[in-house]
TrEMBL record:
This is Inositol-tetrakisphosphate 1-kinase. Its EC number is 2.7.1.134. Its cofactor is Mg(2+). GO terms for biological process: inositol trisphosphate metabolic process. It comes from the Eukaryota. InterPro entries: Inositol_tetrakis-P_1-kinase, InsP(3)kin_ATP-grasp, ITPK1_N. It catalyses: 1D-myo-inositol 3,4,5,6-tetrakisphosphate + ATP = 1D-myo-inositol 1,3,4,5,6-pentakisphosphate + ADP + H(+). Residues 47-126 form the Inositol-tetrakisphosphate 1-kinase N-terminal domain. ATP binds at residues 132, 182, 214-225, 240.
Length: 355
């Protein structure tokens, strides 16, 4: 059953799969950028090659980003996948989010042969996030707990095959229902975002492995998206599944309930009239520490975290999802944050070389 289709952010028919045809091969800027004093790298423009789907190109390379880039002397150039990467550029930075083994190999080879180019980010580190069995491991290992709060991950169980074994496996593991069932592989396909909630023991065998079963954590229907761009973090509030969704759905019919993509809708929960104990953002120092550790442990610079606060706990947080190169276009002020990040990357590299 689907609840409030309109809340789902993505029409699955419209959702484009990753493919070469999706790539926008047109360079964005052809003219020499105007450099503002203080921003230029001795007058040299910064050239950023990008390999993104057309959907991502559209949501990321918005006019406001293009404007800031022009001001700061940054060129965005579309990478042409039909040509060897080494024949393109020269680039200062390469940004990418594409699927497939072949692409991973291309970008890995390029990193080895072009150590002077900053590749955002290493393909192996991105790949690590594409399996929900391992995605949250770094957060669990970190076991962050200080005077500002605690950050953990929900208890979870991996089911690779055989749906009929799920009820027993759940009983043995001691996981408490309801459970959120998430496809094991998070590769950005529509299917990888198809989540369901299982409320009762019987419905567990209706689920389709391979998947991860996660305990549902009551959190007051609000989720925090923590966007990370290098060393900068930005937090926004989003609506999430309400705590009583299980009760409501259970009263109608037991079974498996399809989870709508509530939290990825651009509508922010910032202006909603929410209980302050639910809406209060996680403490900044806690997020700073978490982001710094995860940057190092994951080896990534571009990602976001979905964080929820256990209802009534005050300061007990759970990371439930980590996404590589998320929808930065929805992050307030991303045009400044991102262009500054790119400039700093390249400036840092020049400084290192001159040392
Ligand atoms: N363990 C949990 N407890 C409570 N709610 C959860 C839990 N896991 C997921 N949710 C809810 O389901 C939504 C989707 O889950 P999740 O973020 O893991 O899926 P996703 O498809 O990877 O999302 P995204 O679009 O951010 O990539 C969350 O935003 C949250 O509202
Ligand atoms: O497109 P959107 O703006 O919704 O961005 C979403 C992004 O899709 P895109 O990479 O195709 O753009 C998703 O990536 P895949 O898992 O599907 O790879 C994932 O990162 C979501 O969490 C993002 O939503 P956000 O977390 O920022 O709300
Ligand atoms: Mg999520
Ligand atoms: Mg995700």
């Amino acid at each position: 059953m689907r609840l409030k289709e309109e809340m789902s952010c993505r029409n699955e028919d419209e959702r484009e799969e990753f493919s070469e045809q999706n790539l926008n091969h047109q360079p964005l800027f052809f003219t020499t950028p105007t450099l503002e004093p203080g921003f230029s790298l001795q007058g040299k423009p910064v050239v950023v090659g990008y390999a993104l789907t057309s959907k991502k190109t559209k949501s990321f390379l918005q006019p406001k980003l293009e404007d800031q880039a022009r001001i700061k002397g940054i060129f965005f150039v579309a990478i042409d996948q039909s040509k060897p990467l080494s024949d393109q550029g020269p680039f200062d930075v390469v940004m990418h989010k594409l699927l497939g083994k072949e692409w991973r190999q291309i970008i890995e080879d390029y990193r080895q042969t072009h150590p002077e180019v900053t590749v955002l980010d290493p393909p192996d580190a991105i790949q690590h996030l594409r399996n929900r069995q391992f995605m949250l491991q770094a957060v669990a290992d970190l076991n962050l707990s200080d005077s500002y709060g605690k950050v953990g991950v929900p208890r979870q169980l991996v089911i690779k095959k055989d749906a009929s074994s799920i009820p027993d496996a759940v009983t043995k593991s001691g996981l408490i229902l309801p459970l959120v069932a998430k496809p094991l592989i998070a590769d950005g396909s529509a299917k990888s975002h198809e989540l369901s909630l299982a409320f009762d023991q019987n419905s567990l065998q209706k689920l389709e492995p391979p998947l991860v079963l996660q305990e549902f954590v009551n959190h007051g229907g609000v989720l925090f998206k923590v966007y990370i761009v290098g060393e900068t973090i930005k937090v926004v509030r989003r609506f999430s599944l309400p705590d009583d969704v299980c009760k409501r759905e259970l009263s109608k019919n037991a079974g498996v309930y399809h989870v709508p993509r509530v939290s990825c809708a651009a509508a922010s929960a910032d202006d909603a009239n929410l209980d302050p104990r639910v809406a209060e953002l996680p403490p900044r120092p806690l997020l700073e520490k978490l982001a710094k550790e995860l940057r190092n442990r994951l080896g990534l610079r571009l990602f976001n975290l979905d964080i929820i606060r256990e209802h009534g706990s005050g300061d007990h947080f759970y990371v439930i999802d980590i996404n590589y190169f998320p929808g930065y276009g929805k992050m307030p002020g991303y045009e400044h944050i991102f262009t500054d990040f790119l400039l700093n990357l390249v400036q840092g590299k020049y400084k290192k070389r001159s040392c």
